[in-house]
TrEMBL record:
Subcellular locations according to the entry: Cell membrane
Presence of the UniProt keyword Membrane in the record: yes
Matches recorded under InterPro entries: MFS, MFS_dom, MFS_trans_sf
Protein name listed in UniProt: MFS transporter
Residues spanning the membrane: 47-65, 77-97, 103-121, 133-154, 160-181, 193-213, 225-242, 262-286, 298-319, 326-346, 358-379, 391-412, 424-443
Membrane topology, from the record: Multi-pass membrane protein
The Major facilitator superfamily (MFS) profile domain, residue ranges: 8-447
Pfam families for this protein: MFS_1
Organism (species): Cryobacterium breve
Sorted UniProt keywords: Membrane, Transmembrane, Transmembrane helix
Amino acid sequence: MTPRERRILIVAILSSFVAFLDGSIINVALPAISRELGGGLTLQQWVVDGYLLSLGALILVAGSLSDTFGRIRVLRVGLIWFGITSLACAVAPWGAALVVARILQGAAAALLVPSSLALITSTFRGPAQGRAIGAWTGWTGIAGIAGPILGGILVDTSSWRLVFAINVLPIVVTLVVLAGVREPARTGPAARIDVAGACLAVVGLGGPVFALIEQGRLGWGSPVVFLPLVIGLLSLAAFIWWEARAPHPMMPLGLFRARNFWAGNLATVGIYGALSLGFFIFAVYLQQVGGLSATSAGLAGIPATLMMLFFSTLFGGLAGRFGPRLFMTLGPIVAGSGFLLLTLAVPPVDVWRTVIPGIAVVGLGLAVTVAPLTGAVLGSIRPEQAGIGSAINNAVSRVAGLIMIALAGTIAGEQLGVAGFQRVLAVTASLMFAGALVSWLGIRTPKSVADAATPVAGEHTLNAASGVSRKPSNGRGPEICYSF
């Protein structure tokens, strides 16, 4: 790796790490926020979903902005805007102001994620690109689980407001490193921005999410709930219709013709919807019902982080040898079983006997699942489509989490208790099992991976990061074969 490549990889990881860390660090701070600002579970849902709403709705169009105005420029704007909105969250005087700041912060995060990945795909080629994307994916995944640990320490030792203010430090470091990176030369025409698609996506997501969160307070019969739901669903239908006809769609539907792409994204709905819902309720329950401190609730997630650190590379390599299907099936089953084990954590909560074993099993399941899932999705499309492919998969995962957290109040009830916690985890496990079933029925192992046990010298090269074997194609680009 050249010094320039190393610098670009560091910038890409740092900028995305900040965005994903902020998306997960907030969970353990929610009880402290509601104690100071009021609002109960509804405010807690909006603080999380406001961020996910703008991130999920804008992440695809942000990729077009990156291609149009330059990745470095968009990344720099996103970092600065993220820092400003983080400070706005830190000083928010009331709940509504915090929610607005979180929505604006999610929009900034949308600028960071696709720009950082596009920077990698335009810099690295061949196996080096797979390794770089693997490093990027691994660190952003770890950020999602490690965030509650840092958040708990900050909440207990100082204030929940530091959970947001702390973002300024890594942002400054990233901007300093970014200053030494020049904009890569554009290899094709600038992408056009799908303004209509972006507007339809925002309304299509925002309406149903608003209805799901507020129906617990206002009821489904209220026009304030019913009308946004109907308008949102109609906008989502219009979004799909428009993307199929738009000259420059923000979500090219043609990618979904690849079996592993659509099946992998469908599995992502269940798996990442479960993760968002499970970890959200886990952190809140341990504090509000279990009586643990924010730090203790965050530290309870350490076994999952360790499992990801120790075993993700191992299972990513095994998926490269044997294909992703088996691992994408077994992993969610293991993780779902771990969430069911966590239902035993009833007051007085015995962390070592009822929390640590369950969360460790969840982490093991994630280690088995995440790298093969990413490889299956990105390995099913052409290398030059990796940027938009990853953006779509990220959008799918964020939207799945957005919807499931919006449903948390409906599932748990107005006041979170043991019964509500157990219902939520039962739903979480069911989503994991659904992801496993979709993987088993939908994912196909690349034929060349199945044949890799007896390779002919010089005939195949295996990309362990994606689990796809690419045969030399005499200058016509890689050929990917799947066995059915």
